[in-house]
Design goal:
Blueprint (H helix, E strand, L loop, with lengths): L2 H16 L5 H8 L4 H18 L3 H13 L2 H50 L6 H11 L4 H12 L2 H7 L5 H4 L1 H15 L7 H13 L6 E2 L5 H5 L2 H19 L2 H12 L3 H10 L9 H22 L13 H21 L2 E9 L2 E11 L7 E7 L6 H28 L10 E7 L2 E9 L3 E10 L9 H12 L1
Parallel strand pairs: 1-7, 4-5
Antiparallel strand pairs: 2-3, 3-4, 5-6, 6-7
Helix pairs in contact: 1-3, 2-5, 3-4, 5-7, 8-18, 10-18, 11-13, 14-19, 15-16, 16-17
Length: about 475
């Protein structure tokens, strides 16, 4: 065990012994975990070690009683609710800041227009109608023009309209989704077998949400909240156990945890990134992880070094610079390094729906060149409506990508891969949601993971969670 891991473990044990009420929920608040199974396993191990090392018999007895009575699963559920509430509070805070800044801009613009108007008033020699006509001919602007211009500058509705599917009315209609769904169902129906858990959830979906374009199995969806916890756990284990075990191995988890919990200081992080060495003795997965860090971490270190000019703390930054600096490079690097998928950012047309544009698309690196990933993003100061619209649009885009691949392969009389999955990413403020979609009687939407971008030096440990999420998704 490395020195940093030993120090971290000792810190956790000391906390367990000294803290007045070391319940699982308090431990989760202390270590800020992201993986349920790992968090609970760590709590149990630390509690056992604390019991063995504690010299105070009264405290030791208290820890033993705690071990017998705690409910880790219940505390984890409370922890998730707290995280969601904290995320909502952050959104409200950032929204309030954005509103104040928008109001300041409007007030300044109105002041400028008033000054211009008063200057022009003294020069008028014609009647008011002629004066207004002259101003229109000369390209001048009145107070109303200025206010409209200011409102346009501060209103995200224009951006929202450009991003929505409104430029293609057919794709918004239920008929569009249902028609393609019938075709895909006919192609896949005889080849796909469903487990009992999948069949049970499908019945609940058809009974309550049959009009929805996809079965939303993300953590806080209406369907997920309706499901029995055991049934939901079964389906998530079927989908994610293999992903977690194959990609987030102990080797990868330990490397990321050790690296980002080390104390390099502000000046030392640049050097630590340069010193990452990719050895032939490393596993292929570890080599890829190190390559990912070398290709993406430097941009964040640079941003943190700018202090007051740090773009990650600037909610007035526009969408394109924000996505190009931080979001697109992360997605581009992780997809190419781990999956050999060619990611292209910008206004990209969806295959099979040329009029529908996405902010980024990932292509299979083979002769088919199918799009298998779509991405939507927003500026940090975007309103919540933009997030909702992007989420809906991305789901429809993922369905379109899935349909395009299945129908194209069937048309070419090639063998259909029934385990096909397509992927999506939605960036809102500084949070990134990573999703995937497959088909089991209907389209199923899962959230692989989500994370907030680290914003400053104090957030360095959060990079471990961020990179684990990206690797799982890719």
């Amino acid at each position: 065990m490395s020195t940093s891991r030993k120090a971290l473990r000792k810190r956790h044990i000391d906390w367990m012994i000294s803290y007045n009420n070391p319940t699982p929920i308090e431990f989760f608040r202390f270590i800020q975990p992201i993986h349920k199974s790992r968090a609970i396993e760590k709590y149990v191990k630390i509690l056992d070690e604390a019991i063995n090392l504690c010299e105070d018999q009264e405290k030791q007895l208290k820890l033993r009683n705690l071990k017998e009575t705690v409910n880790c699963n219940s505390d984890w559920s409370l922890w998730l609710v707290e995280k969601k509430a904290e995320s909502i509070r952050d959104e409200i805070h950032e929204t309030n800041m954005g509103v104040h800044q928008e109001l300041n801009v409007i007030v300044r613009n109105k002041g400028k227009q008033k000054i211009n108007y008063n200057d022009e008033e003294g020069d008028r020699v014609k009647d008011n109608n002629d004066s207004i006509g002259d101003k229109n001919e000369e390209g001048g602007s009145s107070n109303n023009d200025g206010i409209e211009e200011s409102d346009g500058y501060n209103d995200d509705s224009t951006d929202d309209k450009e991003e929505e599917y409104s430029n293609d009315s057919d794709i918004n209609g239920k008929e569009y989704v249902d028609e393609d769904k019938i075709v895909v169902h006919d192609i896949l129906d005889s080849d796909i077998s469903a487990t009992q858990a999948e069949q049970d959830i499908l019945k609940i979906y058809h009974s309550n949400f049959d009009n929805c374009p996809a079965m939303d199995l993300r953590l806080y969806s209406k369907l997920s909240l309706l499901l029995d916890q055991e049934l939901q756990d079964n389906i998530l284990h079927e989908v994610f156990d293999e992903i977690d075990n194959d990609y987030i191995t102990d080797e990868i988890h330990n490397f990321l945890t050790d690296f980002f919990n080390a104390d390099h200081g502000k000046q030392g992080w640049c050097e630590s990134v340069r010193r990452i060495v990719i050895n032939d003795k490393d596993s292929e997965l570890l080599q890829c992880t190190k390559e990912l860090l070398k290709g993406t971490l430097g941009q964040f270190v640079k941003a943190f070094s700018l202090d007051a000019l740090n773009p990650l703390r600037d909610i007035t930054i526009l969408e394109r610079p924000h996505l190009n600096q931080f979001i697109h490079p992360l997605i581009d690097n992780v997809l190419w390094i781990f999956a050999s998928i060619n990611y292209i950012s910008g206004e990209i047309s969806l295959q099979g729906k040329a009029r529908v544009m996405v902010d980024g698309a990932g292509y299979l690196n083979d002769v088919s060149n199918y799009q298998i990933i779509c991405m939507e993003g927003a500026k940090p100061g975007a309103r919540n409506k933009k997030n909702v619209d992007d989420d809906k649009k991305n789901i429809k885009s993922m369905i379109q990508l899935f349909n395009n691949i299945i129908v194209s392969e069937a048309s070419e009389r090639r063998q259909i891969y029934t385990g096909l999955r397509v992927y999506g990413a939605t960036a809102y403020k500084t949070e990134l949601s990573l999703t995937m979609l497959d088909f089991r009687g209907t389209y199923r939407l899962f959230e692989v993971d989500r994370f907030s971008l680290p914003k400053d030096w104090v957030d360095m440990p959060k990079f471990a969670f961020m990179y684990e999420a990206l690797i799982k998704w890719a």
